[in-house]
Each structure stands twice: as structure tokens, then as C-alpha cells.
Amino acid sequence: MTTKSAFCMVVFFLQLCIVNGQGICERQMITEWRTEPKPTIIKWTPRENVCSDFYTECWNMNKSILGEISEERNLSIPQICPLQLQLGDSLFISSEPSFQSYGMNLVNVSKEEFINCPRAGFLQEQLIFVCQIKGLHQVDPNWLGVGTHYFAELHKRGPLLCNMGLRLNVTVKQQFCQQSLGAPLCSGHGKCLSHIWEKTYNCHCFSQYSGTFCQKFDICSAKPCHNNASCTEKSELSGDSYECTCPPKFSGKNCTEIVGQCQPSTCFNGNCINVTPNTFLCECDKGFTGRKHLFLLSSSLSV
Ligand SMILES: *[C@@H]1O[C@H](CO)[C@@H](O)[C@H](O)[C@H]1NC(C)=O
Ligand SMILES: *[C@@H]1O[C@H](CO)[C@@H](O)[C@H](O)[C@H]1NC(C)=O
Ligand SMILES: *[C@@H]1O[C@H](CO)[C@@H](O)[C@H](O)[C@H]1NC(C)=O
Ligand SMILES: *[C@@H]1O[C@H](CO)[C@@H](O)[C@H](O)[C@H]1NC(C)=O
Ligand SMILES: *[C@@H]1O[C@H](CO)[C@@H](O)[C@H](O)[C@H]1NC(C)=O
Ligand SMILES: *[C@@H]1O[C@H](CO)[C@@H](O)[C@H](O)[C@H]1NC(C)=O
């Protein structure tokens, strides 16, 4: 049997196998940046891990909640489950056992060629591997720079295998979550995340933190100003200073002092303490708080 006829038989056999063999790709909509790179192995076979419908099979999304993404809405081509990698991850290709005696190769193609499958006339330098491969091979990291890459099966006899789904969409993402090299991700005050349609990983800060790297503590969100005073962050530099603008009758750094002097029974359930010649505080009894009977810890009032 010639190599050619054997190859045709393999293809014929595979075509029988994939009649209804389309699968749904597993994926999370939002992923968190891993601190360690990870290897991924893609099995290059049309028999499993092949999807056709862009949204429901390849990206496992609920069509009814899609509205904002319109571009690829009608893109339904059989392909190996699209892949998203972190910059630095390694990618291995393992070939279908029945291809192994014939060998296979992948070619880096444009989006249009990915959609239509490459025809003759590709450039030698776009071949992912230097020769036909059998078994497990690593893709040179030079092919896996930041961005979206399209690889397609290439065979002397035309685009048959590519048409059956042997083409891969790989998106490599980098993170912008570190203020400087070696700094903790999101300054330790947030998570470094990427939604499936985003091109990069970015910080999502815990409450009270803000900034590209969650490096800013939002002092006003801790509500240091009392009695309905308004809070303004004072200096970008220190990041932890604020100013309270007190409503009339209130005073002090945190607007906790009342303008005036202690009078008998000014404070309903607590002790009255003069702070300055014209402001006073109510030190509330246990279990009482309030606007006019103000709260301060007794410890701060000793002396
Ligand atoms: C898709 O979304 C709709 C509306 O949000 C919901 O009713 C339906 O159950 C979802 N289907 C799947 C398969 O998640
Ligand atoms: C989707 O369909 C529209 C019109 O039907 C067409 O203009 C567009 O090129 C198609 N997109 C793709 C990616 O095939
Ligand atoms: C892969 O192909 C695309 C589209 O033709 C091209 O823009 C890109 O430069 C190629 N990648 C490499 C590493 O040659
Ligand atoms: C390839 O995957 C990216 C997401 O990683 C997606 O935005 C793009 O539309 C896909 N391209 C094709 C042609 O399916
Ligand atoms: C103002 O509030 C801050 C934090 O809530 C506290 O640390 C500080 O001691 C208060 N200052 C005064 C003068 O009450
Ligand atoms: C706080 O101020 C807002 C407007 O600045 C006002 O509507 C509200 O009544 C005030 N609340 C109290 C408890 O004084």
C-alpha cells in the first residue's frame, strides 16, 4: 500500500468517526493569573476536543446573554478548542496516532487562512516545526508571543485535515498587575484577572483599594468623618491623609466634637467632656451611640 492510499484510508476512517463528534470546550469566563507557567498539551486529532459553533461550543457561552460581542457571531468552523495561555506557558502538540507514520506539520496562518484553511503557496518560514512530526513536540516559544495566533494543519494533499477541524486559535496574554518587577500582584490588595474576551490580565481591587495596581488605599471609604461630614482625600503622596468638612455645630479632625461647652445633661446617656474651650464630646455609656451623644473610646479620654 502506498503512503498516499494509506493516508486516504486514515482520512476516510476519521471522517466516519466525526459525524457527530463535536464537543463543547471546557472553560472559565474569568481566569486568575497563575504565578507559575503551565504546560499545555493539545492533541492534534479531529476526533475529540473539536468544536464548531463559535459561541456555544468553542467558547461555551450562553447565546442569550450575549449582546456586546458581535464581531464573530457567525463564525462557525470546526476547530480544535481555542486556547488561551499566559505569556511564558509552554505548548506541546501531540499528533493523532494514525498520523504518526505519515507525519504532520503545522503552519502559522493569518485569520483569513485560519477560516478558509491554507492552500498551497505558504511560506516555508511559517512552518511551526522544521520537519514532519510524530508524537509529542514542543512549540517554539517564539510562536507564542503576546496576541492571537492561528495554526493550521498542513499536508501535501491539501486542506482536508484542516477542514475537518485541525486548526487552532491560540491567544497569549500578559499581565499588568505588578507595579515593579518582583512586586506582589496587585500590591496584595486585589486579584489579577482576565475575562475571556480581554487581551490582558489586570487588577481587580478589594474594597477600599484603587489604582492600576491597587496601590492606593481609599481612606475615605473607611468613613473617618462622622456626623454626616464630607470626606476629601488630601494628598496623593501619602495616600492615607484626609480632611473632614464638618457640618455646622461640629468640629475636630473627624467632626466628632460638638461646638460649645458641656452643660448639665447635654449628653443623654454618657459623660460630657470638654475638649477645647469651645468644643465638647459625649462619651457614651455602653450600648448607646448617637449624633448628639457622641462616641469615643474611653481609653482615648483618660487623663
Ligand atoms: C442562558 O441564559 C438564560 C437567561 O439568562 C437562562 O434562562 C438559561 O437557563 C441559560 N442557559 C444555560 C444553558 O445556561
Ligand atoms: C458575518 O456575516 C456578515 C454578514 O452576514 C459578513 O459581512 C461577515 O463578514 C461575516 N463574518 C465572518 C467572520 O464571516
Ligand atoms: C504568523 O502569521 C501572521 C499572519 O500571517 C503574521 O502576522 C505573523 O508575523 C506570523 N508569526 C511569525 C512569528 O512569523
Ligand atoms: C480567537 O480567539 C479569540 C479569543 O481568544 C477571539 O477573540 C477570536 O475571535 C478568535 N478568532 C477566531 C477566528 O475564531
Ligand atoms: C479620627 O479617626 C481616626 C480613624 O478613624 C482615628 O485614628 C483618629 O484617632 C481620630 N482622631 C481624632 C482626633 O478623633
Ligand atoms: C446628611 O447630609 C445630606 C446632604 O448632604 C442630607 O440630605 C442628610 O439629611 C444629612 N443627614 C443627617 C443625618 O444630617
UniProtKB/TrEMBL annotation:
Domain of life: Eukaryota
InterPro entries reported for this sequence: EGF, EGF_extracell, Notch_Cell-Fate_Det
Disulphide bond pairs: C186-C203, C205-C214, C246-C255, C262-C272
N-terminal signal peptide: 1-21
Record flagged with keyword Disulfide bond: yes
Residues covered by the EGF-like domain: 173-215, 216-256, 258-294
Pfam families: EGF, EGF_2
Protein name, entry field: EGF-like domain-containing protein
Record key words, sorted: Disulfide bond, EGF-like domain, Repeat, Signal
